[in-house]
Amino acid sequence: MNVESRLGMFEQAFKNIDDDLRKEAGCTTELDYIEQTSWLLFLKYLDGLELDKAAVATLHGKKYDFILDKPHRWERWAAPKGKDGKLDHNAAKTGDDLRDFVAQKLFPYLAGFKTRATGPNTIEYKIGEIFSELKPKIADGYNSGRHWAQALNA
User: 70 lies in which domain range?
Assistant: First the structure.
């Protein structure tokens, strides 16, 4: 797939996310869309970064301690993969399960890093600081979850 077609694919995927966010009761401005898209992108980035660090540690015969515990990692709740390595749509959280997980488990867990961190200059503290200020604005986890998976796992 060439660069232009991948860019077009990402543009369409993020347009779908923006369209979904516009339909959400709590998202009324571009700032809301940016805020909600930003935390998604951050968690996807953090997942990729941690997987890369774990792979490097394995190559050096070392163990890597993940920042996020397994139930809160992207690969568990947003993009679980089947045995074939492809996105398992049946295992991915959607609908009320997605909305409730993000609001009641994921965000409080991430906000808690602020108090569990060893100091203010750690990534854990910064994650806690950011997520203690954010509020998820997902009302319809069915459409949102489907588009997040498509956009961020492409």
Answer: 3-152
